[in-house]
Amino acid sequence: MPLLKLLHFASLLCWCGALLYLPALIAAGTQRSEPLFYRDHAHLTRTVFNLIATPAALIAIGSGSAIFLRDGLVAGWLIVKLTMVAGMVMCHALCGVLVLRIERSPERSASIQCRILGVFIAAFITATLWLVLAKPF
Fold first, then answer.
1. How many domains does one find in the chain?
2. Pairwise CA distance, residues 43 & 39, whole Å
3. Mind giving me the DSSP string for 59-101?
4. Which helix (H) or strand (E) holds 135?
5. CB within 8 A of 48, min separation 6: which ones?
6. How far apart are CA 91 and CA 31, in angstroms?
7. Rounded to two decimals, what is the model's pTM?
8. What's the mean per-residue pLDDT of the chain?
């Protein structure tokens, strides 16, 4: 089943890339003064979230679950890794909340929330990668 792992890695790469990109995209959408920019930028942000990040997340989680069920592996590092993935899912949901917020009131700045969210996303991705590669326990 190397194709299943390939699907998992590819979708995880797309999801992580979109997760890292979304906070910057959201923050950029709140710092312009042109109404036309808001409409187009909000559409771009929603498109990245709905058509790239969310499907990639669903495929990554689904294929990862299939690998887990196929291998039947239960280890301490895996439980911690799944906790980190749950953190990534929460960050994904918070990106969705911020996307809705900039659509409703683009004049409100979300740069601090986006910076904090970006730090958490990077930390969760780094921890997940380290746990998978090192398998410390």
1. 1
2. 6
3. HHHHHHHHHHHHHT---HHHHHHHHHHHHHHHHHHHHHHHHHH
4. none
5. 18, 21, 22, 25
6. 22
7. 0.91
8. 91
Q: What is the pLDDT of residues 48-85, one digit of tens each?
A: 999 999 999 999 999 999 999 999 888 999 999 999 99
d(CA 85, CA 27): 24
Range of the domain at 77: 2-134
Judge whether residue 38 has pLDDT over 70.
Answer: no
Cα dist from 83 to 36, 88, 125, whole Å: 41, 9, 11
Distance CA 33, CA 21 (A): 22
* Residue 16, number of CB atoms within 10 A of its CB: 21
Measured CA distances, 60 to 6, 18, 27, 44 (Å): 10, 13, 26, 23
User: Contact, 59 vs 7, CB < 8 A?
Assistant: yes
User: Rounded to 5 degrees, what are φ and ψ at 62?
Assistant: -65, -45
Residue 1: both structure tokens together: 């089943």
